[in-house]
Amino acid sequence: MRQMALKRRRYWAVLQMRTIQPSVSLTALILHGNTDKKLDSTEAAAVDVWHAISTFYRGLPELNGSIKSKTFHLATQSYGGHYGPVFFNYIRKQVEALAPSEDVLEIGSLLVIDGIIDYSTQVLAYPRFARNNTHGVELNDTLATYMETSLHMPSLGCLDQLGYCVSSETLEGDTSIDADLNCNTAVSLCRYSVELIYVLRSPDQDIYDIRNHSLHPQPLGAYPPWLNTAEIQQALGVDLNYTGPLSVGAYAPFQFTGDWVSSRPLRDLSELLEAGTRVALMYGDADYVANWLGGQDVSLTVNFTGSENFRNAGYVPLLADGKRYGDTREADNFSFTRLFDAGHDAPFYQPKAALALFNRTIHGWDIATGTEAVHAGFATVGDKESTYSQKNGDGPD
Description:
Elements (H helix, E strand, L loop, with lengths): L1 H17 L9 H4 L10 H22 L7 E7 L2 H18 L8 E8 L5 H4 L2 H7 L9 H12 L5 H15 L4 H17 L29 H5 L2 H7 L11 H9 L7 H11 L3 E7 L7 H10 L5 H6 L3 E5 L2 E9 L2 E6 L6 H4 L1 H13 L34
Helix pairs in contact: 1-3, 3-4, 4-13, 6-7, 8-9
């Protein structure tokens, strides 16, 4: 039964494509099926995603002949900090390996929203954010000190455990048993002794939006029924009902291998930037679990040819319809944006700004204003830090 379940999961993405238009020939089912391979990591899942996406693009003329563009953009959120860089880089490599006659798709841009990209980098920001964030929703010194002690403790501390994980991946490969065990241990220790200590601040403390929920409404739970209305399904071109965002069956194997703390996404992000792919990062400043301080650290850590240009760039206001919604640092093909007053589902809180950022990303315009085409040598000139603080009573300019 377990093997049959793995087979069904392996083909889920491609089979879902079949529901769009039964007449489309989905030869990937026969040509690419490897039912013995278990999906227990983002890296392994990238193969299936490539088959599904390439099959979709090959069938696109029959699905909708009026769509001429073959450019593929990917926008991801949360754990999409993992699968965004890994999937997109794998797809990029597959496209580059195709013969010129196999004109399947073109690589566009990658947008990551409140993403967990590199846990080894981002975990360092949890105590800092817990002690001092711009919304003033902070831990007492006792709990914050406990987080820092758990982070830096020799051998049994979070950072050393993450080091064992990365060393295992480097020496024995991402899929080795030792790497799985070491990384799984690091996930549990780091999350429960460092990251999630923040919830002890109060009985109802939310890690996705740290602010008072009575004053700041949260994303509604009404969207699944809305997605399943006939009008929306027709607009999306699907006839398969949306049943929910979480799958325990899919998550459990990823948890066992410690995929959460894998160093692979940062390596793939580096390769994408080195290849000239446009990448935009956006983080809501009221989110704790993927907070903007950690996202900023990732943006300053990733190495590629233009990384020094990016680090030397400054923050400028993110503007939409003349209003300041955040701060953006951008150079060449890379940008990082702190979005003010937004939780983990950042587009819900600031839809106008999020849409503007999305459109500017895919159309090649500067993120901050959308008025200048991005070119080699482009860089924002401004402050080295984003200093806007809600707890200090600052207001957007």
